[in-house]
Design goal:
- This protein has 4 helices and 2 strands.
- By secondary structure, the chain is mostly helical.
- Strands 1-2 form a two-stranded antiparallel ribbon.
- The relative contact order is 0.13.
């Protein structure tokens, strides 16, 4: 019985030291603010220099030339043609294209 009580005390003591040794891991280090974002005066400044081909599409002029109904049909075909795993994102991208006036494509 005395041996068992001593064993329980030792077990509690070891457990207490184990918890105490892990306590410093819970302290959070102060993380400073993120660095400032790079500034781009022109849209072309945002394009990396190692791109082989950059094409500028005047989406406003294309929409004005083709008309709203034709652009809507093209957008619907584009959403159906995308084979991405996230169809909501695909639809969001096509919707964003309908809102933009200038599209830069780089490869």
């Amino acid at each position: 019985m005395i041996l068992r009580a001593g064993f329980e005390r030792a077990r509690i003591l070891v457990f207490g030291f184990g918890v105490a040794s892990l306590a410093p891991a819970c302290a959070s280090d102060h993380v400073g603010p993120p660095p400032s974002a790079p500034s781009a005066a022109r849209a072309i400044d945002a394009m990396p220099a190692d791109l082989d081909l950059v094409v500028r599409l005047d989406m406003k002029r294309i929409r004005d030339t083709l008309g709203a109904s034709t652009m809507q049909t093209i957008s619907e075909h584009a959403v159906r043609g995308l084979r991405g795993t996230d169809q909501a994102t695909d639809a969001l991208l096509v919707s964003a294209l309908s809102e933009t006036d200038t599209l830069w494509v780089g490869v």
